Amino acid sequence: MKILLAVDGSAYTKKMLAFLATHLEWFADTNEFTALTVQPTLPSRARAAVGKEAVDAYYAEESAKVLDPVVKYLGRHGLQVKSVSKVGNAGDTIAHLA
């Protein structure tokens, strides 16, 4: 089974991860976990003012702030997690990836 974990670094993410870690017996070893974070699109004027490289670096940095702790936490509990970061509307992006 493929399991999508939509994470944003909030308290809800931490509660979800704690619940998952305490109920690992519910999941088979063959399950595939994907952690997804979605960064909101910066306004076009801001993107134009700072340039593509700066915007891409910003998105990568913000995504890493969310995904790195998730991957590390789940790794300590023996789960291999694929991490994915996207830019756009969170609801639409999550639904599309699911």
Description:
- With 98 residues, the protein is of the alpha/beta class.
- A three-stranded parallel beta sheet has the order 1-2-3.
Summed over residues and divided by their number, the pLDDT gives a mean of: 92
End-to-end separation: 12 Å
Report the helical percentage: 40-55%
Series of H and E elements: EHEHHEH
The best one-word shape is: elongated
User: Number of DSSP strands?
Assistant: 3
Q: Rg from C-alpha positions?
A: 15 Å
Q: Major beta sheet, specifics?
A: 3 strands, parallel
Low-confidence stretches: none
Q: How are the strands of the largest sheet arranged?
A: 1-2-3
From the helix content, strand content and strand pairing, which structural class follows?
alpha/beta
In terms of DSSP E residues, the strand content is: 15-25%
Number of helices: 4
Compile the SSE list and pairings:
Layout (H helix, E strand, L loop, with lengths): L1 E5 L4 H12 L9 E8 L4 H7 L1 H25 L4 E7 L2 H8 L1
Parallel strand pairs: 1-2, 2-3
What's the gist of this structure?
The protein is an alpha/beta fold.
Note the main attributes of this structure.
single chain; alpha/beta; 3 strands; about 20% strand; about 100 residues; about 55% helix
